[in-house]
Write a structure and sequence with these properties.
By secondary structure, this protein is an alpha+beta fold. It is built from six helices and 20 strands.
Length: 403
């Protein structure tokens, strides 16, 4: 994630946008079905059973001493309807054996000038063969990369995503993309006024409670638990809510009797070896999506929008930051970046959360003042959330289109 911790009314299907020059401008676009993926153009790829796969490899490359064969696919150009300054891509993929996927982005500005293709992620489910990574920097032309966020300060009017599917040469294990999308935004310097409580009042979801702090000192090669593991711990809580946590075989390398070993597993499976942390936003949703069915990163405009998800039975992982004394009742004094789960709302509209920074599991459930948490969320990350859900909990309707 981009922090200190190591969406128009007439939108097309798969698109969310808001054109509000006085507040947030947000647009989420996703290609999910086979028909949607076929709107892209591929070299050596095919779409079968709703998944983008290698058909006939078109190139080879050497990476880390291993030769891979690969094919590429480009999305159509996406025009959100405003000049955006940030983009966060997310995906759901399968990478059997020694295979991986790469996600790149390029943009086009109002004058028609195109940026270079910038690498956003080299990703595999496992770290057995490949150390999944981002590539910060790439400040060569119109944009740069800050961990998981593509930034174009002067603004872009459209973008394309590129997927590279790669597998060890001579093998037939086929990586695939089920979903690829991105949220773009242009945000104001400060958050809007506190939203009024809405449809989520009085609803609290039964999300299990896990503490990141009980893992302090675990596995230094993946940042050693504790304060560094808010994101995988939050993601694990949401997976636990859907009864979609990994089984014992997955984390058999964790000592027997270790508390919540699925959190250690999630930290390993979301770790970004360039960023040196488990807090990469799309790495967390890419880990969760195949397990539960759906997962992506987007931005929301207010807690009132978040309430629609709670009403639909979908908890949200939210990225926040705040200074000392700015979030009453928080287990930490302040943070430049922290993840927690929005689990529900009181009748008065305050926010019931599972905050993994609680020292014990019983200290994880907390209630935060609505205005304080909304500022910490919208000012901190611009309203970033992980939307992780199964088919039994479809996304709520939106006045902006589809989420």
């Amino acid at each position: 994630m981009t922090s200190a911790d190591p969406a128009s009314a007439s939108a097309a299907p798969g698109v969310v946008s808001a054109k509000r020059a006085d507040t947030q401008q947000i647009h989420y676009h996703q290609l999910d079905s086979g028909a949607q993926l076929r709107t892209g153009s591929g070299k050596g790829t095919r779409v079968a059973r709703g998944r983008l796969r290698i058909d006939t490899p078109t190139a080879t490359r050497k990476l880390g001493g291993t030769r891979y064969e690969q094919s590429t696919w480009n999305s159509p150009w996406v025009e959100p309807g405003f000049s955006f300054t940030e983009l966060i891509a997310s995906w759901s993929a399968v990478t059997p054996g020694n295979s991986f996927v790469e996600i790149r982005v390029r943009g086009r500005n109002a004058e028609g000038r195109r940026s270079s293709w910038d690498l956003m992620a080299r990703w595999a489910k496992s770290d057995t063969f490949l150390k999944r990574t981002t590539k910060a920097g790439q400040t060569d032309d119109l944009a740069d990369v800050n961990v998981d966020t593509w930034r174009a300060p002067a603004g872009m009017t459209s973008y394309q995503l590129r997927v590279t599917l790669a597998r060890k040469a001579g093998t037939n294990r086929n990586p695939g993309i089920d979903t690829i999308g991105a949220v773009v935004s242009r945000l104001p310097d400060t958050a809007p006024a506190t939203s009024t409580p809405g449809p989520g009042r009085g609803i609290v979801l039964d999300v299990p409670r896990y503490s990141q702090m009980i893992h302090e000192g675990d596995y230094p090669q993946w940042n050693g638990g504790g304060q560094a593991w808010c994101s995988p711990t939050s993601t694990s809580m949401v997976l636990g809510y859907y009864d979609s946590l990994p089984g014992p075989k997955a984390y058999s390398w964790v000592p027997a009797g270790h508390p919540d070993p699925w959190v250690d597993y999630a930290a390993r499976m979301t770790f970004d070896y360039d960023y040196d942390g488990a807090g990469n936003w799309p790495f967390n949703t890419a880990y969760a999506a195949p397990r539960v069915g759906h997962g992506f990163v987007t931005r929301l405009r207010s807690l009132r929008e978040a309430e629609q998800f709670i009403k639909a039975g979908i908890p949200l992982v939210a990225s926040i930051s705040f200074g000392d004394g700015q979030l009453t009742g928080a287990p930490i004094g302040g943070t430049a970046g922290h993840l927690l789960v929005i689990s529900g709302f009181t009748e008065d509209g305050d926010v019931v959360v599972n905050d993994p920074a609680g020292r014990t599991s019983s200290a994880v459930r907390r209630t935060y003042d609505r205005a304080q948490l909304e500022r910490a969320w919208l000012n901190g990350s611009g309203g970033v959330v992980y939307v992780i859900h199964d088919s039994a909990h479809p996304l709520p309707a939106s006045k902006h289109g589809n989420w």
